[in-house]
């Protein structure tokens, strides 16, 4: 099968979140299953600064609303998957991917309309007619409308005959690509598309359009696929998703165990451990505590948290309960960044409890690995969580997650088996789950050990997820296999 994987970010080239990890690992897994796959993304300034070995492939010309725009197509290898980069300095040679700290770039619609059009021209330039084009998140969401209109019904480009089938993955439905109606000319589409597919309370909504126009829509866990069909989690698109439910599929993200594995992790002080021998975990814990000035005391659990410090991640529950949790005689290390008010809170917490709290405001991949390996428990009390990856990493490291039952957290964590859970988004329920975890750690060491062994033995490798994506691809292609 020939697959074009389109993403605004791909690890290791550019990353703002879990999408980039998926966009690296899923194509690798699909390639390993025998498919002909390549990936496409913009060439941002941050990629240019990496001085990667790239070969120029072609010069592209893209018809935009304001005239012809040029692009250079470059190619690099990402593992086994060829990755193509759309280079246009006016659109992508900027400090941020989608904006800076004070907001999104005002021309984001134009930037990513250009990217989608250039992606289709890329297919022609490399003579690659895909069976399936797999788009990811709102930055790619206009591609189905462009393909079906400009290259299909309107112009009937002979290269795109038959038209590829279209699969779209929602990684987080709260990010939909909404723009003012007066931006409509930028899309260069017939007005009927606005009325039928894009209009959303007087705005353009790119995600709404691709739900209508894609052959299948996937999201990153089975529970999240159900949740987004409800008022609480659909962010206004629940009715449209309900109408498309027969073509909506939840597929849990996998994990790259070459990157996240306590037996081989290169970031954990040169110390490793396995499900059969946990001694290395406690050595890593000791080193991590010393690194953050926390005393190593017997029977004191170390609680880790690696997260964006935003409301979605349940940080309000943590700010409400943090002092109660520390009064259980625990320690906490927090890695993340986001809302400055949350930064201020954790800075205050560290000053108030210097022997119990360590924090790192920002992103640090090495520290993330150390926390996953050295912590005893991992906090993830999200308000909503499409999939979540850190709870799955935590399982492999025997770091028992404490999670709210939502999205992928509900699909991966079972209370008392491989972690601790709660449902109601209330401080009392959250604190009770932490208290139960601490009590089990202290008072039932054999049960804790068995839960660690259970967690470390679970398999969330990408191969299983890739096979499910292939099932979706075959369905839209009308194949049974």
Mean pLDDT: 95
The helicity comes to 25-40%
CATH class of the largest domain: Alpha Beta
The computed structural class is alpha/beta
What is the assigned CATH homologous superfamily of the largest domain? Glycogen Phosphorylase B
Q: Tally of extended strands?
A: 20
CATH domain topology of the largest domain: Rossmann fold
Structure description:
The protein is α/β, with parallel strands linked by helices and 481 residues long. The chain folds into two domains: 2-254 and 463-476, Glycogen Phosphorylase B (Rossmann fold), CATH 3.40.50.2000; 279-459, 3-Layer(aba) Sandwich (Rossmann fold). 39% of the residues lie in helices and 22% in strands. β11 and β12 form a beta hairpin. It is elongated and about 70 Å long.
Ordered list of secondary-structure elements with their pairings:
Elements: E1 2-6, H1 18-32, E2 36-42, H2 45-48, E3 55-64, E4 67-78, E5 81-87, H3 89-92, E6 99-100, E7 103-104, H4 108-125, E8 132-136, H5 143-154, E9 165-170, E10 178-180, H6 191-198, E11 199-200, E12 203-205, H7 206-213, E13 216-219, H8 222-227, H9 238-243, E14 248-250, H10 279-291, E15 302-309, H11 315-326, E16 331-338, H12 340-352, E17 357-361, H13 365-374, E18 377-380, H14 390-396, E19 400-404, H15 407-412, E20 420-422, H16 427-443, H17 445-456, H18 462-476
Parallel strand pairs: 1-2, 1-8, 2-5, 8-9, 9-13, 13-14, 15-16, 15-18, 16-17, 18-19, 19-20
Antiparallel strand pairs: 3-4, 4-5, 6-7, 10-12, 11-12
Helix pairs in contact: 1-18, 6-7, 10-13, 11-12, 11-16
